[in-house]
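Following up on my earlier thread - several people asked me to post the actual chain instead of describing it. Fair enough. Here it is, all 281 residues.
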Amino acid sequence: MSEGKSGKEGEREQWQISGSSAEIYERHLVPAVCGPWAPFLVDLARPRPGERVLDLACGPGVVTRLAAQRVGATGKVVGLDLNPGMLSVARSLPPVSGAPIEWKEGDAVATPFRDASFDVVLCQLGLQYFTDRPRAVREMYRVLVPGGRLALLVWRPIRYSPGFAALADALGRHINPDAAKIMHAPFSLGDAEELRSLLKGAGFVGIAVRIGIGTVRFPSLEEFVTQYVAAAPFAGHVAKADEGARTAFLRDVSEALRPYTDDEGVAFPIEGHLAFAGKAP
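Reply from S.P.:
Thanks for posting it. Predicted structure:
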């Protein structure tokens, strides 16, 4: 987590988590929140056997491993992430069939790759956190070969995800405003026109943005709150709050999400923008 920043840039930079949180993220949040989107993102880019793929902001590697299977043993896949805790978890997981994966620590706004190094760039739920989004998208363009493809996913505004909206509201009421701001960071690039403008400004062509609708499911309301908080960078804010504030926080989230409960726990919708773009031949 970076210090000394303010405003939107500071909020985005704070979305870094420790090693233990990364393990919780992989174990609980990947299957419940972001993992189900990985096949749709990879399908959008259509990686072919033998191609070279970069998964930018790869986290624990759910997209990276799927891409490795798609390009096969003759392909090449690199997972790049700024967070060493995420990369440690990625390296600890069993290898998959297909291309060998290189896990590399690095910054999306200054990637350590030569021009035209990859046929495909993937970025699932990373762009909204980058401190210089236009520069990061230019990097995606730079490392692609002519005719290369980009596929990325960002969440739509938080109002399209009632579970996380309830979490943010309760954080602001009972924990502190800083925790609520951090909770809003994953949803900070929700405007489709802003996304198109970023891609167009970097030189991409054939840009297409569509809405995807998914479901977040946890076995119970309490597990949703406790597991998400444990894996989030605002966990320290919650831990420092007194018991009464934490109890009220859990109560408010539970009440807001009561309409989304069923016999198997809690399930609520979440919406994202899936974007495809190409580099002209």
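The domain at 7-278 is CATH 3.40.50.150 (Rossmann fold). That should answer part of your original question.
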